[in-house]
Each structure stands twice: as C-alpha cells, then as structure tokens.
Amino acid sequence: MGLGRLSDGLAVTPPMGWNSWNAFKGNIDEGLIVDTAEALVRTGMREAGYRYVVIDDGWMGPERDGQGDLVPDPAKFPRGIGYVAERVHALGLRFGIYTDAGTKTCMGLPASLGYEFRDARLFADWGVDFVKVDWCHTDGMGPRTLYAKWALAFAATRRPMILSICEWGRSHPWTWAGTVGHLWRTCWDIQPDWSSIMTILGRQSALHPYAGPGHWNDPDMLEVANGELSAGESRAHFALWAMLAAPLIAGNDLRAMSDDTVAILTAPEIVALDQDRLGRQGRRLRSDGEVEVWVRELAGARTVAIALLNRAAVAREIRVEPAELGFGPRGDVRIRDLWRRADLADRVGEIIATVEPHSAAVLGIAPY
Ligand code: GLA
C-alpha cells in the first residue's frame, strides 16, 4: 500500500488540533494562540489527541524584510513567531502556521511564490511542525508542480513538517497529492451551518479509496459549536468527520467552551473511530435522500462502524440488515453505541435506531 506515498512517519493517523480561522479569521494575536494552547491542556483535549495548534491567515505584516523573509505583524506577534512556537511546545503540543502558494494570501498579505525554500527554512527555524499552504492568487500556476516544490523545500530543511495542501479540490488532489503532502482539502470553505456540512459530506464518499495512513482527504476544519449549529448537528458533524477519517482540527473558541462542546470534541470512542489505525475512510452505503447509512471498516477483525444519519426535520427510525454490512447469512451481531459508550445488544439479526432530526447515531458493529 505504501507505494509512492510519503513514508516520513507523519500523520500516520489523521492530524488533530486547532486552527484559528473558523472562529477568528484574521483577528489573531500572540495572546489568543497561547491561551488556546493552554485551553487545549486544561480541557483535556490534548490528552484526547489534539496536538497541532495552527495559526491561519493574518499573521504576516504587510512587507517582507530587507533579506526577503516574511515578517510577523508586530502588533499581533510582538515577540515573533518563534516565541509562540516555544510556548506551544512547552505545553507538549505542536505548532503550525499558514502561507499561500501564490503572490498573496487570501487576505491579501505577502505569500510564498518564488520564496518556497526560504520560507520553509524560516518556518523550520521557528520550530514549525505543520504548514498549511493555501491557493489564492495563483493565476496560471499548476498545483501539482508548485506543491511538489514545497515538498522539496520541506525536505531540504530536514525538519519533519506536515504539509497541508489547500487548493479546495480543484485539481482532484486525491489523485496526486498522496506523494506530496499529508492532507489535502477536497472542497471549498466550510461554513458553520447544517447545509454547508451536508453539501461537503455529500462529496466525500467517492473519495474514500484515496485516503490512508500518511495521506488524508481533508473535508475542512471543524465547525463544532460555531454559528447556529445545534448540539445534535455539531455531534453529527463531528461523528461524520470521524467516519471520513478526516483531520480533526477544531475551529471554535477553546477558551470558553461549554461542557457539552468539550464532551463532543473529546468523546473517546468517536475520536478513536477517527484515529482507527487501519486508516480506511468511510463511505455512504445507501441514501434515500433524508436517511443515509455510512460504513467504515475498522482494524478489529470484521468490525465496522456505521453512522445512521437523519437529514430530515422529523425523527426517523433507521434499520440496517447485518447482511448489508457484509455479515454472513445468519448475521448475528453485537452493537455498541459509540457516543454513549455502551453495548446495546448482543446477537441480534437487525440493527434499528430512532434518530433525532439533523442527528446521527454512531454504532460499532462486530460479529457475534
Ligand atoms: C482560504 C482557505 C481557508 C482559510 C482562508 C484564509 O479561504 O480555504 O481555509 O485559510 O483562505 O484567508
């Protein structure tokens, strides 16, 4: 399987962490990043597996310096980026940053075209562990060539850094990016509403063959607890991203989370589902428009997870025959509710759940 893939030992399971963009856009500074890193520790998210603290767009000042290096905005990062990286590392976390492959970032700040080796070197010197490389202002450029240049620039630094490719799925990166980077966006930007999440989800099933250890489809960062999402919608979003073996990059304000939000983001068996070592992405088994059944093969012998998604505005009873999941003719199975962390039934021939509107039941299914 490893043929042609990166084999640098990074992102063996989907990366987990936090990124500043979804909640803060360009309103970021040193205090926010350090406080967020502390919140990752205090809330138990670090222990749950969240490792990467990533600064997105908006950290640069308006010009490169006289040597040609990127300069952090002095009002936002008065002690520089290396200082922030040190504070993040001191908490047992890893540090990530953002640039853009073109002439400017999406916010119109200095970007990296023609400076790939210089910028990779600078990031490595700062102690960066993860770089998101965006795709604004790249007229006429080919993503395959330009991201391959980034991979060479990373290799030249000799510092292990995750390369997060962000060209929004335009050039079908799943067909080529596994040899270049560790994750690649498959879609345009997520929004904190149910319809955006459902639209993105609908495009992921066909991409399931392309993901695996070290190379992941990225359906974009989490919107859990953002915007108008209800608790059920946040739970469904989180669980479906886990079914997709998606990077779990929280995008909310971690400094002031409700207990419910912490419980979603750290749900042990949902996180374990995302991080399953086999690294197979889930896929949609069937859909009737309002009810969808998703399945993901897990490392345990003949074990799968299923998500029963109710997109409708009323509760639905959803039934699945074990035979649909590849369990033999007798089909007796054991069922575990991965949210409640409870065994539901032993030796049953049919899986039935009542699922609330805009919610998903997530079950582990094993042969009896
Ligand atoms: C693009 C990316 C987003 C974010 C912004 C920053 O829209 O897709 O994830 O990085 O740029 O400007």
Task: Please tell me about this protein's structure.
The chain is of the alpha/beta class. It has two domains: 16-274, Alpha-Beta Barrel (TIM Barrel), CATH 3.20.20; 283-367, Golgi alpha-mannosidase II (Immunoglobulin-like, Sandwich), CATH 2.60.40. Helix content is 26%, strand content 23%. The protein has helices at residues 21-24, 30-42, 45-48, 80-90, 116-126, 143-157, 194-202, 231-243, 259-265, 268-274, and strands spanning 16-19, 52-54, 94-100, 130-134, 162-166, 183-185, 216-218, 248-250, 283-287, 291-297, 304-310, 316-320, 333-337, 342-348, 351-355, 359-367. The strands form three sheets. An eight-stranded parallel beta sheet has the order 7-6-5-4-3-2-1-8. Helix 5 (116-126) crosses helix 6 (143-157) and helix 8 runs parallel beside helix 10. The two termini are 30 Å apart. The mean pLDDT is 96. The chain binds alpha-D-galactopyranose.
Main β sheet profile: 8 strands, parallel
Number of domains: 2
Which sequence of SSEs, written as H and E, runs from N to C? EHHHEHEHEHEEHEHEHHEEEEEEEE
Category by helix and strand content: alpha/beta
| Spatial arrangement of strands, main beta sheet | 7-6-5-4-3-2-1-8
Terminus-to-terminus distance: 30 Å
List the helices and strands and how they pair.
Layout lengths: L15 E4 L1 H4 L5 H13 L2 H4 L3 E3 L25 H11 L3 E7 L15 H11 L3 E5 L8 H15 L4 E5 L16 E3 L8 H9 L13 E3 L12 H13 L4 E3 L8 H7 L2 H7 L8 E5 L3 E7 L6 E7 L5 E5 L12 E5 L4 E7 L2 E5 L3 E9 L1
Parallel strand pairs: 1-2, 1-8, 2-3, 3-4, 4-5, 5-6, 6-7
Antiparallel strand pairs: 9-10, 10-11, 11-16, 12-15, 13-14, 13-16
The protein binds alpha-D-galactopyranose (GLA).
Alpha-D-galactopyranose binds next to loops.
